[in-house]
Each structure stands twice: as C-alpha cells, then as structure tokens.
Design a protein that fits this description.
alpha/beta, 7-stranded mixed β-sheet, 407 residues, single chain
C-alpha cells in the first residue's frame, strides 16, 4: 500500500503555514516539523493543565495522567516495558547522564568501544571515561565509504569490553547499521549495547525490544514531537547502574537517569506522536491491535515512501564529478539523510539553495570525527539534504533541479 501523502501532510500545520509556502524543507535531520496531535496536546496542557502534576485536584490529576499516557503508549510502540522509557531534555544530555552512571559502574582496565561514525553525542561523553582509566577502543569506519564493518568490531571485542556504543545510522553517512546483528555480537562477548537512534527514528519508530540493545536513544523533536530526548534503558542494565537521580527516586526505573525534574508539558505532548502513528495506521487500514505491530506497519509505509523518493536523488548525485556523495547510493540501505562534499563551503551552498526555495543545511553537524576520517575538512563541512515521509515527490524534483542550478 502506498502512503497517502495528502493525508500525511494534512497532519502537519507547517504545510498550511503561509510563511512557508513555496519552500521545500530538507533539513529534517536537524529537527522535523511537528504534527498536529503534538501541538494540540501541548496547547491543551499549557492552557488547561499547567499545574504541578499528580496532586489530587482535577487539573493536576489530568496533567499526570497525560504524562503517564505518553510513557505507556511510546513504550508499547517501542516493544518495551513502560518504566523502561525515560524522558530528558535532549539526547546529548541523556547520554551524559548515562556516561556518568557508567563512570561509577566501570573499573580501571575495563574497556568500552565507540565509533567515529557517530554524532558527537554518542561518542564524546563515552570517550571521557578514559579519564577514569577506562580503555576506549575505536571501531573505525571505512574512510572511502563511511561503512562500519561488523567484522572489524569482532576484532575489538574481548572479555574486558563492557559497553559498545554505535549509531543506528549516522547523521552524515546515512547507512543503516544492522543493530540486531551487532547487538548479538556484543552480548555474546558479555558487553552491553548503547544505540543512538536519533537519525533513524524519524523514519519509523523501531521495535527496540526486538532489536535487542540495552540502551536506545532518540530525539522527539526530530520525530514530529516536542523538544525532548527519549531513552529506552532495559531493566537488566538500568537496575544495576548507579542511580543518577534523587536518592528517594532510586527505586523507580524511569526516574533513575533523569536527575532534573522533567518538562511536564513536553512529556505529556509526546503522546501526540503515538496519536499520529495511530492515525496513519487507521487511515491506511493497518492492524487494529498491538501497538508495536501498528507502529511496524506505519514504519514500513514510511520507509517504502522514503526509499521511492530517495533513489532518484541518489542517482542524480552519485556520478557527478563536482561533488562526493557520502555513504551508499542504494536507497534501500540508508536513511534519506544525504550529505555531499563539494569544493566549497557546505553552509554557503545551503545559502545558495535557499534562494531557490530549498531549506537545507551545511556544516559539520557534530560529526567532526566522521567527516575527518573520510577526508572531509570539517571547517568546510558538507551540504546535507534530509527528508522524511511527509516530503513529496515534487519537492524532491524541485531539490534536484535547484542543485543543478547551484553546483
């Protein structure tokens, strides 16, 4: 079944906003448009329920119930228990909190593995554990393609490795890494696994329970939601890591790694992401029961649409001699996050595209290590064009035509 793009775009107020007309949005990897159910919930919370939640009076009871609903429904979609889902101000800050927990948990001489394919959020905090005598091993990308080879990981794994951190897909390379295969390798070696899903989740929320990692992180504001970081921490790991919250919250799994008070309104509004997934599922005749199955149906709808639109863009770029396409040229194995290196500033090229009605980005995108490893000057950066399932075929055609004018 094909995605009903008109129905989809009708769920996003941005497409009816007069100030955005005539512009095609291709910087979704930096933050997506927000769907109407999220906006509606946020407005309702701020206007009707902006009180301290979980008190016995009605506004407070309703406020707490909405926060609980968000956690319950997202956990069901992600295939995990409700208390295995935590909210925080951003994925970067969530990762720093987790790294602090591992700083206390690990002993000198033990090892962790990080990659140079990651956004800095899932590599920098972990690398700082070297200050405590933890050995940091780097799983390196292929400098020509940006690919992470699981065979190279196997050579790094031994009985001293306690944690392996890698991205579901890179925010500049775009290739989708085989999370289940990699997680199985790590678990067999006795290591925990932390996956940065920020660049993957916008293209269909995954069933984390089936994928198998111990930690999975993503950003709601890149997944049609409010500015929150969402993290799954499976119980077996979460209960043995040192508590990072107030001591009296230490026995509540979803509070253990959120030391600050949550943003009540944004947590509550995150339930709108589940509303949106349900609306897509029902409109397209998907399964009527089991939240994870319904989300899986929507995931596949999104991915099929994105692959169909992405391949023509990759085909238009891959054989040009005036740029370097970063990552694979097969749409089936990558997310629609497309970075190209040219012989001038990526930010400057993005500025030129803006004059043709294309909203894209240029720079290093906090992937300095990845770009450097591939021989791209981070100061010059790349042009990044990223879209998601609400992008239309006409917008991709518009982008390709605009690129021909500015390159």
């Amino acid at each position: 079944m094909a995605l009903d793009i008109d129905f989809v775009r009708g769920q996003f107020p941005a497409f009816a906003e007069p100030t955005l007309q005539g512009q095609a949005f291709f910087e979704n990897a930096g933050g997506s448009y927000t769907c109407k159910p999220v906006i509606d919930r946020l407005i309702r919370y701020y206007t009707q329920r902006k009180v301290q939640p979980y008190a016995p009076y009605e506004a407070s009871t309703l406020a707490g119930a909405e926060m609980d609903e968000a956690r319950q429904r997202l956990a069901a979609i992600l295939g995990v228990d409700t208390d295995e889902v935590s909210f925080g101000p951003s994925t970067t800050q969530n990762t720093y909190v987790l790294a602090q927990a591992f700083r206390q948990f690990l002993s000198p001489g033990e090892a962790i593995i990080v990659t140079n394919q990651d956004h800095e959020a899932n590599t920098g905090p972990w690398r700082r554990l070297a200050e405590e005598g933890i050995e940091v091993r780097e799983w390196k990308i292929d400098p020509a393609t940006g690919h992470l080879d699981p065979a190279d990981l196997e050579t790094l794994l031994d009985e001293n490795v306690r944690l392996v951190c890698f991205p579901h897909c890179s925010n500049v390379v775009g290739e989708i890494n085989p999370v289940t295969e990699i997680t199985a390798l790590c678990h067999a070696a006795g290591a925990f696994v932390c996956v940065d899903g920020v660049s993957y989740a916008p293209h269909g929320l995954p069933n984390v329970g089936e994928l198998g990692p111990d930690i999975y992180l993503f950003s709601a504001y890149k997944t049609y939601g409010p500015h929150q970081g969402i993290m799954v921490i499976r119980r077996a790991l979460g209960e043995i890591l040192p508590n990072q919250a107030h001591y009296f919250n230490g026995d509540v799994l979803y509070k253990r790694f959120t030391p600050a008070g949550p943003d009540h309104a944004q947590v509550a509004a995150s339930a709108g992401m589940a509303d949106y997934i349900d609306a897509l599922c029902d409109h397209h005749g998907g399964p009527t029961e089991d939240a994870a199955a319904r989300a899986g149906f929507v995931h596949d709808l999104m991915r099929d649409h994105e692959v169909k639109l992405l391949q023509p863009l990759l085909d238009a770029l891959k054989d040009r001699n005036d740029l370097r396409l970063i990552g694979p040229s097969d749409a089936a194995v990558r997310a629609p996050t497309v970075a190209v290196a040219v012989n001038r500033s990526g930010a400057g090229l993005a500025e030129e595209l803006a004059g043709h009605g294309i909203m894209a980005g240029g720079g290093d995108f906090y992937a300095v290590r990845a770009l450097s490893a591939m021989g791209v000057d981070p100061e010059q950066g790349v042009l990044r064009m990223s879209f998601t399932h609400y992008t239309s075929e006409n917008e991709v055609t518009h982008l390709i035509e605009a690129l021909d004018r500015v390159l």
